[in-house]
Amino acid sequence: MAGEERDIKVHIDNVKKTYMGRTGEVVALNGVNLDIANNEFVTVVGPSGCGKSTLLNIIAGLLEPSSGTVTCNGKVVTGTGPDRGVVFQQYALFPWLTVKKNVMFGLNMKGINGEEAEAIAMKYIKMVDLEKFVNHYPKELSGGMKQRVAIARAYAANPEVLLMDEPFGALDAQTRTQLQQELLDTWEKEMKTCFFITHDVDEALILGQRVVIMSARPGRIKDIIDVDIPYPRDQETKMSPRFLELKNLIWSQVYQEYLEVRK
Amino acid sequence: MGEKSSARKGGKQGGKMMSRVWLLISLAVAIGLWTLLSVLPQTARSFPNIIVTLGQIPVVIERGILWKDLSSSLISVGAGYALGFIIALPVAILMAWYKPVRNIIEPWIQFIRNIPPLAYVPLIVIAAGVGRRPQIIVITIATFLIMCITMYQGIINIDETLIKAARVLGARDKDIFIRVLAPASLPFVLTAIRLGASVALTTLIAAESTGAFAGLGMRIRSFNNNFETAPMLLYIIIIGVIGITVEKIIKLLERKLTGWQEKREI
């Protein structure tokens, strides 16, 4: 197990990202180094503007780093690839496709069509408990249901790394808690390497094996906290002394960053 | 669930009944106002009553002008409108795609769009002569402007995350064009088609002031010269009926093809 954990899936090496702003060059990320192990669940917290979404987009291959490299499975990332899936905060479902066709999209792109694609899609639609809605359009679904479809869609394409950019950020507290639990259950059942961005410290702690704290301007990794709370975790975990201890520790660091940003 | 949905269905049917009733009331009010205008001494000369006006239908058919005018106008409108669309679609896509194209073309589209077509008709007649050609050109210009700007604004506002989502799911440029950009643009294309149809009809009068030999717009002017108010009013109503019919058909098409949309625009 220990040997397996050292099996590095994503290797982020000295990544820097700058872009041209109105007042000149802005450094979004600088000197970011991080190794993510196979099947590890890493969560990232930090104030808005710390470049956490930029980092996710670079890992996804949607953005190119200005310098440094991201390696996935030993191959340098130069664009999007089937080994990495993304779940966006805005759901990003195709509104003209039904739930089933949305989930089948990635399969179709891989050349998997017809009954085979349908069977795989149905498996993941069942996983997120939406069998009754297979032929519905996104506009007929609530926010939580839409994000479930997006998760099913990402899973169906069977990536090895799942990148999630504040996926539950737009949901109400109750739906969010429910989806966190579902995501944990799924992760324990179908292991995948997860890179999960959030601004919610509770969420980062309940999900992650490690919590990466980022600082702003320029965005870099400030600290990495090992979450030594065993799985399965549930809502009661949030009351445990160790959880609260770690929450305090992370909060104080994140809070410092908020103060920095406000200056 | 079953009970709820059937109740909603009942509600929907009730709503349809109600909207029919309101339509009848609205029609009655309009006819009432019309009758009032036909009685009032100040307006009686320009508003013959409904019976006199509709009584002109057999008259204009017998004079052999109704079908001639209708077909002439529909040919001009149809040809100009189709040409306008064929030019507007690629231009809108190019404007959305390439910034230089957008920066050069957009200000002029906005500028010309605000000039009433009637103002530049003489220029076109001087350039293209009289007959059907200038009519088609005027309608092409007017419909091109509105359809191009509507489609361009729609295409440029397509949610970028949809393209990103497709890309991370393995879509290549061709897939993105066919499976994301095309369906995402469809609502704006249909809106453009609807607005274009309306502009095509409203431009008809201007287009037919180019020395047409037949046509609804041309005939209205000739009725006007002879103080024939009853057939003139009839022709005006015919243009309105064509307009609303075309709009209803396109709206039906919109509901069929783009019913998946979250919000409907005007």
Description:
The complex is a heterodimer of chains A (263) and B (266). Chain A has 263 residues and is an alpha/beta fold. Chain A has helices spanning 2-5, 52-60, 99-109, 114-127, 143-156, 173-189, 201-207, 241-262; strands spanning 8-21, 24-37, 41-45, 67-72, 75-76, 84-87, 161-165, 193-197, 210-215, 220-226. Chain A has 2 domains: 2-83 and 161-262, 3-Layer(aba) Sandwich (Rossmann fold), CATH 3.40.50; 93-158, no CATH class. Chain A has a 6-stranded mixed sheet, with helices on both faces. In chain A, strands 2-1-4-5 form a 4-stranded antiparallel sheet, covered by helices on one side. In chain A, strand 7, helix 6 (173-189) and strand 8 (193-197) form a beta-alpha-beta unit. The model of chain A is unreliable at 1-5 (pLDDT under 50). Chain B is 82% helix and 0% strand. Chain B has helices spanning 2-39, 50-54, 56-62, 66-97, 99-113, 117-128, 132-156, 160-168, 173-202, 204-207, 216-225, 229-258. In chain B, helix 4 (66-97) runs antiparallel to helix 5. The radius of gyration of chain B is 23 Å and the shape is globular. Chains A and B meet through strand 6 and helix 3 of A and helix 8 and helix 9 of B.
Q: Can you describe this structure in just a few lines?
A:
The complex is a heterodimer of chains A (263) and B (266). Helix content of chain A is 37%, strand content 26%. With 263 residues, chain A is of the alpha/beta class.
What structural keywords apply?
heterodimer, A: about 260 residues, alpha/beta, Rossmann fold, 6-stranded mixed sheet, 4-stranded antiparallel sheet, 8 helices, 10 strands, B: about 270 residues, mainly alpha, MetI-like fold, 12 helices, disordered N terminus
